[in-house]
Specification:
Helices cover 67% and strands 0% of the residues. The chain has 212 residues and is mainly alpha-helical.
């Protein structure tokens, strides 16, 4: 028999909701490195209360962006339902980049996950849907055959840096950058690449800053 988590008391649930709401707003405006003390102060609770609910920053980040996991899954499902596989891939990437451009915290999250954060069932589902989008586009002949799932990271990194550099000057300039990259993904424009695709362990180390 699976044990269910004990529901929080009303006051405890209220404090948790206040913390998540405060963190969501501060992350969106200032990024993921906002001081936890500032988050607790904005929420109107003590730092001890914050740690009681979220023992580390990664737990708080996961709580704040839990709804984004579902959003990404819905975007992926819509992309897979589109008749044209290439259009589905473009739709998915454009919608993800729009989420990045609208929220500094999410922009940082997709380009470099918090090291302590652990994949959830929702993340696994999202990854599986993304794989299907990519493989479907390859099978259609539209997407270059040497594109890998790890290469998706390069697209999100490029968008993240473009948003950081130009967001305050030209908020939508990332769309031009993405358009150029998408043209390079078309099979009709593909040329042999001199570098092998990045491995999963290399990708993990790159995203977490683990050089060991």
């Amino acid at each position: 028999m699976t044990s269910r988590a004990k529901p929080l008391r009303k006051d405890a649930q209220r404090n948790r909701d206040l913390l998540v709401d405060a963190a969501r707003k501060l992350f969106a405006a200032h990024g993921l490195t906002v001081a936890l003390e500032e988050i607790s102060r904005t929420a109107g609770v003590s730092i001890g209360t914050l740690y009681n609910h979220f023992p580390n920053r990664a737990d708080l980040v996961d709580a704040v962006f839990a709804d984004r996991v579902e959003t990404v899954a819905r975007i992926a499902e819509h992309a897979l339902a589109m008749p044209d596989a290439w259009a589905g891939l473009v739709h998915f990437l454009e919608r993800i980049c729009e989420l990045q451009a609208a929220d500094r915290g999410y922009n940082e999250l997709v380009s470099r996950r918090v090291p302590q954060a652990t994949p959830t069932e929702g993340h696994a589902r999202g990854f599986e849907l993304m794989q299907r989008i990519v493989e479907r586009a390859k099978d259609s002949g539209a997407l270059r055959p040497d594109f890998t799932m790890a290469d998706v990271a390069f697209l999100t990194w490029a968008t993240a840096r473009t948003v950081e550099a130009t967001g305050s000057v030209r908020p939508d300039l990332w769309r031009r950058n993405l358009g150029i990259m998408l043209d390079g993904l078309r099979s009709s424009a593909a040329h042999p690449l001199t570098e092998a695709p990045i491995g999963q362990d290399e990708l993990r180390r790159a995203m977490t800053g683990d050089c060991g």
